[in-house]
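The following record pairs a protein chain with its ligand, adenosine-5'-triphosphate.
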Amino acid sequence: LLMAYEPAKRLSRMRVSLESAFVGVQMMFEILDRPDSMADPADAVALPHGQGEVALRNVGFTYDGKRPILSDLTLVFAPGRTTALVGPSGGGKSTIMSLLLRLYDPTEGHVEIDGTDLRRITRRSLQQMTAFVGQNTFLFSSTVRENIRMGRLDASDADVERAARSAQAHDFIMALPSGYDTPVGENGIFLSGGQRQRLSLARAILKDAPILLLDEATSALDNDSEALVRDAIAEATRGRTTIIIAHRLSTVMGADDIAFIEGGRLIEQGPLRELLERPGKFAALFNKEVSGKAPAGAEAEAVVEE
Ligand code: ATP
């Protein structure tokens, strides 16, 4: 692990946006129990246990110093609620997620948790406050049990199993050749996309952080898998401030609030029902999705993006 530390530091300095690498680096820091290579400022604070309100305030952002990607974006995510980020491809949803993960800092304005600027929160504290579930679940070459335990290293086997049950993963794990002791990762058993997502959700549930950041996988899942992932997400989001880049209509329908992002700006935000009652961009997109993709009486399977 120590040998892995130097490359991890380099990766971190490069601000790699590759999600799996980020998760790997983040987890390695957790394991090594030592500070991130990006030093905290001297006045950085460990965040007190608050409500978990997340906010972008007048945020502007550019990757290259020229082309604005986000412009004067103010977006408040209410504590304990689940907000689905939707909108056309290229609108800035992933960029918002990157700012929340502090892979980048905004060029203008600031991002805050419970009123404190992320730049003033120690990285360790920020890491403890948030759980991230991305599109590509990073699996260590270890057992299923240890991979879930990455969520909280001091968790007991019973805690791991409880989290796996909540994430709808227990049954498939028990059907593996050695159950929770089955090796996964590079030389381990192959897991389907839906199974990997549920392992990742089990980790997040085990971590029990007040803020959950989720980039839902775009890969197609069969109907059974999708229903299980949907239930796992419902369980993982319960009682947390959740921000989710939603690719599935069922996820949008399960969210408390919708934020429609286009061209780096917030176009509309509010509860699903309210947005559907106005003739806005979200209602148009939603109705197109529902009428175009869903067979009568069945649940639409797909993408809320254009
Ligand atoms: P999608 O739904 O397709 O993932 P999105 O709404 O998440 O899109 P972003 O991925 O945030 O949108 O992209 C917003 C804009 O920023 C796009 O024009 C994209 O090309 C650009 N962009 C994204 N990541 C980078 C990067 N690392 N470097 C430079 N430009 C980037």
